[in-house]
Design a protein that fits this description.
Elements (H helix, E strand, L loop, with lengths): L1 H15 L9 H32 L3 E7 L2 E6 L2 E6 L9 E5 L6 H28 L8 H25 L3 E2 L2 E2 L1 H9 L3 H17 L9 H14 L3 H15 L3 H13 L9 H14 L4 H10 L8 H14 L3 H14 L6 H16 L1
Antiparallel strand pairs: 1-2, 1-4, 2-3, 5-6
């Protein structure tokens, strides 16, 4: 990484900074600083669009696109805009969900590779424009445009390198890291393919109770053995499978394990775990104290499904005996149910809402 950083610094100094004419008026220099923001959005956004296009080509369901403060999510087959308030995800993110397990390894590798491929193509295209631009002409606007082009090309190339080089940061892997994991014929590859297989089934509408228990347990065993970041997510799958089967003792054990590892989940997504706990103790244990405690730990986030939020509120209102509020929340939850990305979870949520109606 040190050698790569040094090489990039040299290239940027030679072809980037040297391209800034010393006699360029200060207004253009100031404008260059302002232009860095849209340049950032362009190069990062193009990288994420590369993932999205590859995902669509692989038959994945394109559901979410984030770049900086801009958040786009597909609801009821229509795209809706929201503001992204999470700094952790402002660097860009695309969510494309597999809905079938056919040839999943190859399809997911192609999906992941779409981002770096888009970045290097953008870099080469912009560099070609810059190379053939007549920069020697005494035209300040044209020279300024040339500087913008070379910086854009450099940053896109930098994003290509940073994402293509295999590495791990916290619980996240670079694109190159994901591809490397998937291409290996070892425990890591087997675990990740199993995880994708399970996820594709639930996204396609298979309820958690019907997931192959051997697949779940094998994936968890491998993740635990490898101490892999996927371990915490597999614990949540095991919890939901047991809860959906009404195996409450086993579900509670998995839930407590899930909560013990909650710091392994990126903060914007932790709210789902607190909702899971609040819903479980409200429905399965009728424990008002714990239901209230876990609900109070929940912090709203654009990444937490509204249907589950309304369900948790309805469970709490039910324990408090507020039947009018329960009815209102059930109605809101049912309206949001089609927007739940996890269609298998949607089946369980609907049944839990129906159980509250009976209560």
């Amino acid at each position: 990484m040190l050698l790569v950083g040094g090489a990039l610094g040299y290239l940027f100094g030679k072809y980037g900074l040297s391209s800034v004419p010393k006699d360029l008026p200060k207004i253009y220099v100031f404008s260059l600083l302002v232009f860095l923001i849209p340049i950032y959005f362009l190069v990062v956004g193009f990288h994420e669009i590369g993932h999205a296009v590859a995902g669509k080509m692989m038959g994945f369901d394109f559901r979410m696109f984030i770049i900086g403060p801009f958040f786009f999510e597909k609801e009821n087959q229509k795209w809706k805009f929201k503001w992204n308030k999470s700094l952790n995800l402002s660097g860009g993110m695309v969510v494309c969900l597999p809905t079938s397990e056919e040839n999943l390894r190859k399809r997911f590798i192609n999906y992941v590779a779409g981002g770096p491929l888009a970045s290097i193509l953008l870099s080469l295209f912009i560099f070609t424009l810059w190379y053939f631009l007549p920069l020697n002409e005494q035209n300040n606007a044209l020279r300024f445009f040339g500087i913008v082009l070379i910086i854009t090309s450099f940053l896109s190339f930098l994003i290509f390198l940073v994402t293509a080089i295999p590495f791990k940061a916290g619980t996240f892997y670079s694109d190159g890291g994901r591809i490397k994991r998937l291409m290996k014929n070892d425990d890591t590859s087997e675990m990740e393919i199993l995880f994708l297989k399970i996820m594709s089934k639930t996204n396609a509408g298979v309820r958690y109770a019907d997931i192959d228990e051997n697949d779940l347990e094998r994936a968890y065993y491998l993740a635990d053995k490898l101490n892999d970041p996927f371990k915490v997510y597999l614990i949540s799958y095991l919890f939901h499978a047991a809860f959906d089967k009404n195996d409450l003792e086993k579900a509670e054990i998995y839930l407590n394990n899930y909560l013990d590892n909650i710091t392994e989940i990126p903060e914007p997504f932790r709210g789902v775990a607190w909702l899971d706990a609040s819903i479980f103790y409200g429905l399965a244990r009728k424990d008002l104290s714990k239901t209230q405690e876990y609900w109070s730990n929940f912090k709203p986030s654009p990444f937490v499904p509204k249907a589950q939020i309304f369900l948790a509120e309805a469970v709490l209102a039910n324990l408090n005996g507020d039947k009018t509020k329960v009815g209102e929340l059930i109605s809101k939850a049912l309206q949001e149910l089609p927007n739940l990305l996890d269609k298998g979870m949607a089946i369980s949520v609907k049944e839990r809402l129906e159980s509250l109606k009976i209560d």
